[in-house]
Amino acid sequence: MSPRPTQPIRDEHAELLPHIEDLRRLGDRAVTGESIEAELQRSVAFLQQHLLIHAGAEERVLYPQVTELIGAAKATATMSRDHVEVERLSSQLAGTSPSDRGAVARLAYGLHAIVTLHFAKEEEVYLEIMDEAMSADAVAAVYQRMEDAAASLKREASS
Fold it and tell me: Which of 5, 27, 43, 82 is the most buried (most CB within 10 A)?
């Protein structure tokens, strides 16, 4: 069986998932009373420097492509709403004191659940549509544009 055209996007999700699991572990540590300062800082850095950049690249490149393939103007609206919620919860987590264990747990668990489900929906619906409708070269071009958008977003965030 040949690899799916969208495998690079799936691989990127696979690279992000261990960090998403770290959010669940952060929630667990907050509930059990273990030290969470370092884990909280790492999770916030991951969200700000990686996950939100990935979401921005999807908004700029992937979702317009999927909208075109599906042929419906609001085809990706619910997924974009997921991104808004992830950004909101990420911002709240960044502003939460490690001493507010209940808030840390609530936010970490919420982010874990939303992002895990979001990735599953993308892979099971959008990427499947792309695999069926696009050549490997066309998907590779979309992925390259996503990488370019992510690099641009990182530059914007650091300036």
Answer: 43
